[in-house]
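Write out the 3D structure for:
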Amino acid sequence: MAPKDFLFNHQHNDMIRSDYRPDPYRITDADLYINLDATETKVRSRMVVEGNPASKFQGGPLVLNGEEMDLVSVKIKENGKWRALDRAEFRVDDKQLIINKPPQGRFELEIVNEINPAANTKLQGIYASGDIIGSQCESTGFRRVTYFLDRPDNLARFTTTLEADKAKYPVLISNGNGDLSKTKDL
């Protein structure tokens, strides 16, 4: 296991440059599916994870930031098939999700979680303000959307799909607007 000093400061305190260490992992691609609702938003994130060549610490646990959300499931794609992780394979608390022994090399990870935008009064991540659901993910707000390496040095390519009740939320802005059906927006 890597020494503790490789971990990024997972608090919202100011980060001191001399304390910075590259994370042992990086996420190169992320595909988000977000089913928006003011009180029960479901988020499915599928990520491509690999070792970070900038880190001298390889392997060890994968530590993902996450706040004020309910974890539904964690899966890893092995041999072309998704496998749900047993509870003994990860730890979760109010600040992070830790995958104890992730696969070596490049792998895919799927996390499903639920958030409550109406209860989000910090206005970071996804939040509700009146009849509008908005987002603010910089600089550390993304950890309030899903579990992720929420660090400025992890530059992943994102694809995002938003779905919502068309009557409540007639306009959605993400990768563009489209219709799924007469009752759902994309």
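The first strand starts at residue 25 and ends at 35.
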